[in-house]
Design goal:
The protein is an alpha/beta fold. Helix content is about 30%, strand content about 20%. The protein binds SN-glycerol-3-phosphate and calcium ion (CA). InterPro entries: GP_PDE_dom, PLC-like_Pdiesterase_TIM-brl.
Length: about 250
């Protein structure tokens, strides 16, 4: 029997791709997420020196490649010349830091993509992102999130149709009031919480917001999130969540 048959089925977001089993934020990790049945990707973006949006978590390439240096000081050609896979496992040697456009091209159109802005480079990234979303027809299927809520407000000013999500770490009551602090229309809340209560979900949902929790990797916590009716679960292990949802 389907263990969650009477529950809403959450969107499975592969966090930095299936990053528990493949090098984060690479095309290999996103492909593995698709193979495992994810519905969406979460990924992190920075701007290169020559104005290309690239997919990488840190503001330097040191941790996740065989190179070193700041992302914003390197051209996309330089960024793609380093290896972004072998640090994780030798079998992923040859993976590169993808351009955001390459991830859009890889993802089937129905895959939801949560783009997290890590470094907006003093407001230079936002107009480039808006242009890319329009050009790739991704305004409907991308949610842009950030801890920098000013960056999200900037995006909405540039393109009101864009969906934005608030990232935050705090344990809070009344999450539904957070969009007022952001000063812009908000599509989703992305809380990192140690302990969830049903009202953390139902309050925002009643206010018309989606709730996408992160980073939920253990089966027990996944089950709690499903039972509470979370709209989306951001996980390094999309295959594990898919199996849980299938009741296997
Ligand atoms: O989007 C949620 C989560 O990805 C934020 O934290 O450090 O994994 O980017 P981090
Ligand atoms: Ca992220």
């Amino acid at each position: 029997m389907d263990t969650v048959s009477n529950k809403k089925v959450p969107i499975i977001f592969a966090h930095r791709g299936a990053s528990g089993e493949a090098p984060e934020n690479t095309l290999a990790a996103f492909s593995l997420g698709l193979e495992q049945g994810c519905d969406g990707f979460e990924l992190d973006v920075h701007l290169s020196k020559d104005g290309e949006i690239v997919v990488i978590h840190d503001d330097t390439i040191d941790r996740t490649t065989n190179g070193s240096g700041k992302v914003r000081d390197m051209t996309v050609e330089q960024l793609q010349a380093v290896d972004a896979g072998a640090w994780f496992d030798e079998k992923y040697k040859g993976e590169v830091i993808p351009r955001l456009e390459e991830v859009f091209d890889l993802a089937p159109p129905e895959i939801v993509i949560n783009v997290e802005i890590k470094g907006s480079c003093e407001g230079k990234l936002e107009p480039i992102l808006v242009e890319l979303l329009k050009r790739k027809g991704r305004l409907d299927t991308v949610v842009v999130s950030s801890f920098d809520w000013k960056s999200l407000k900037h995006l909405k000013q540039l393109e009101p149709a864009i969906k934005v999500g608030l990232l935050y770490n705090l344990n809070l009551d009344h999450h539904e009031h957070l969009p007022a602090a952001a000063g812009t229309e908000v599509y989703s809340l992305h809380p990192n919480m140690k302990r969830w209560e049903p009202k953390d979900i139902t309050g925002p949902q009643a206010a018309g917001l989606q709730v996408y929790g992160w980073t939920i990797n253990q089966a027990e916590t996944m089950t709690e999130a499903i039972e509470m009716g979370m709209d989306g679960i951001i996980t390094d292990y999309p295959g594990r969540l898919k199996a849980l949802l299938k009741g296997t």
